[in-house]
Amino acid sequence: MIAYSGLTLMQPESNMKQTAVAAKQFGETASAYLTSTVHAQGEDLKRLQTIVGGQSIAKVLDLGCGGGHVSFAVAPSVASVVACDLSVQMLEVVAAAAQQRGLSNIVTQQAQAEKLPFDDASFDIVITRFSAHHWYDVPAGLREAHRVLKTGGRMIVIDIVAPEQPLLDTMLQSVEILRDASHVRDYRISEWSAMLRAVGFATQDAVQQWRLKMVFADWIARMRTPAERVTAIRSLFDGASEEVRHHFAVESDHSFTIDSAFFEAVKS
């Protein structure tokens, strides 16, 4: 068995507390995620549309749907989409936006990724985008995704990924947790590949990667980061070594660039 950052060592009581933190954080910022250009745009959304194109009978689960951008992108090409999230407020925003866009095949469901209220083999495709770094227990969430997928179904994970080098990894996790108390971990590509295989997915060898710029002012405003934490993040960047500042392309206003990846896997 593979252990990931001690995720299985905490008691269920701590799980409930961290889950409550995540629900509160995103409930308060739901509208900001609907309009966020970082989340609403991207070549990854276009790639999703290409992947689901022509699958008019497919049932899709948008797991950790956030502002609903995956649901909006794929709904015109599939039979149905379930937009699933921990935050009830986020789901209310998604439902209203889907109605405004005339996407009647999108329904919402409140649930935790690690405990999905769906029958086995309910979906043809499960997609999670920029969500899993908030999950309390990613291996458990992936097991649930595997369970609710039909045999031959496709799992797509899109997320921020940590560098393989420990120094850079540590820096990324530090600024993330200061900015957002609901952050758990940005996983490395090697960790994602291992976790997907461990629960029974067959993964592709080639993983699409790209760089994503975080405009500092927008990045902290979206999560309403407290002023003292903003100061701490700026201080971390200012005091970082040259290799850290170079990797994250830290700018004078503290805007920076991080790594993202697109994983495809199949339930064999």
Automatic annotation (TrEMBL):
Domain of life of the source: Bacteria
What stretch or stretches form a coiled coil here? none
The UniProt record lists the Methyltransferase type domain at 61-157
Q: Which keywords annotate this record?
A: Methyltransferase, Transferase
Keyword Transport listed: no
Note one Pfam family from the annotation.
Answer: Methyltransf_11
Q: Which GO terms describe its biological process?
A: methylation
Q: Which InterPro entries match?
A: Methyltransf_11 (IPR013216), SAM-dependent_MTases_sf (IPR029063)
The terms under GO molecular function for this entry are: S-adenosylmethionine-dependent methyltransferase activity
Write down the PANTHER family for this protein, in alphabetical order: 2-METHOXY-6-POLYPRENYL-1,4-BENZOQUINOL METHYLASE, MITOCHONDRIAL, METHYLTRANSFERASE
Could you identify this protein by its name? SAM-dependent methyltransferase
